[in-house]
Amino acid sequence: MEVVNRTLEMYLKCFTSSNPRLWTKWLSWAEYCYNTSIHSTTGKTPFEVVYGRSLPTLLSYVLGTAKVATVEQELVDRDSMIKELKGKLQQARNRMKQVYDLKHQERKFEVGDWVFLKLHPDKQKSLALRKSFKLAAKYYGPFKVLQRIGAVAYKLELPVSSKIHPVFHVSLLKKQVGVKNLVQHQLPHLDEGGELVPHSEAILDSRVRRKKQEVLIQWQGQFPVEATWEELSKIKQKFLEASLVDKRIV
């Protein structure tokens, strides 16, 4: 519904930009424009999806054919409104294109280049909710470009243990400049559902907080400054590796 409301709002702005107080008068026409516009997802208009047939063509009015003056004026206003709307929509498209062109950067990589990979995991499967997870590093690498696929995709040389498909859109890649970039080189571990699964690397410290023993864990593929405090009891339940539990702390 939010998308529909935003679309109707855009139509009403085009209709009533010169006189916003008349927006209720053009609401039905905004609804008509939405129901007769082809959606990129379905390839059909909402009218065709609901009724299974195309909408009848809206013919232009020929002056003098209506016998009632009120009807004739209504049809004349309709045609002038549609003509004005087409001009407003074209102006909106031109403005959006100008804004896009200002921020758009053409990215091209050659085979053999080293690039950083930006990942956007939707979920994290961890022991507890990490409030600072959004502040973690978003780029991994660098990785070597093996092949260019099409105009906007590249195949990267990922680690053998990676479960991620090696082909990525160019918008997720950033070319390596210099050799002093501090990023995560190892990709995160994923389960069969594509969710992140953390793996511990070392226990850096311990403490007692609220009568519960906690340990400071450095996670695999992350730097020591990104270590997090976890309850020791939950760590033992989650991880069975003997290397995880430091006997000096326990």
Descriptive account of the structure:
By secondary structure, the chain is an alpha+beta fold. It folds into three domains: 1-103, no CATH class; 106-197, Roll (SH3 type barrels), CATH 2.30.30; 200-238, OB fold (Dihydrolipoamide Acetyltransferase, E2P) (Beta Barrel). Helix content is 29%, strand content 20%. It contains five helices and eight strands, in the order H-H-H-H-E-E-E-E-E-E-E-E-H. The protein has helices spanning 2-16, 27-35, 46-51, 69-103, 232-238, and strands at residues 114-118, 139-149, 153-157, 167-169, 173-175, 200-209, 212-219, 228-231. A five-stranded antiparallel sheet has the order 4-3-2-1-5, with no helix packed on it. The chain starts with a helix and ends in a 12-residue tail after the last helix. Residues 122-131 and 241-250 have low confidence and may be disordered.
Give keywords.
OB fold (Dihydrolipoamide Acetyltransferase, E2P); RNaseH_sf; single chain; Chromo-like_dom_sf; nucleic acid binding; 8 strands; Chromo domain-containing protein; alpha+beta; SH3 type barrels; three-stranded antiparallel beta sheet; 250 residues; RNaseH-like_sf; 5 helices
Helices and strands in order:
Layout: H1 2-16, H2 27-35, H3 46-51, H4 69-103, E1 114-118, E2 139-149, E3 153-157, E4 167-169, E5 173-175, E6 200-209, E7 212-219, E8 228-231, H5 232-238
Antiparallel strand pairs: 1-2, 1-5, 2-3, 3-4, 6-7, 7-8
Helix pairs in contact: 1-2
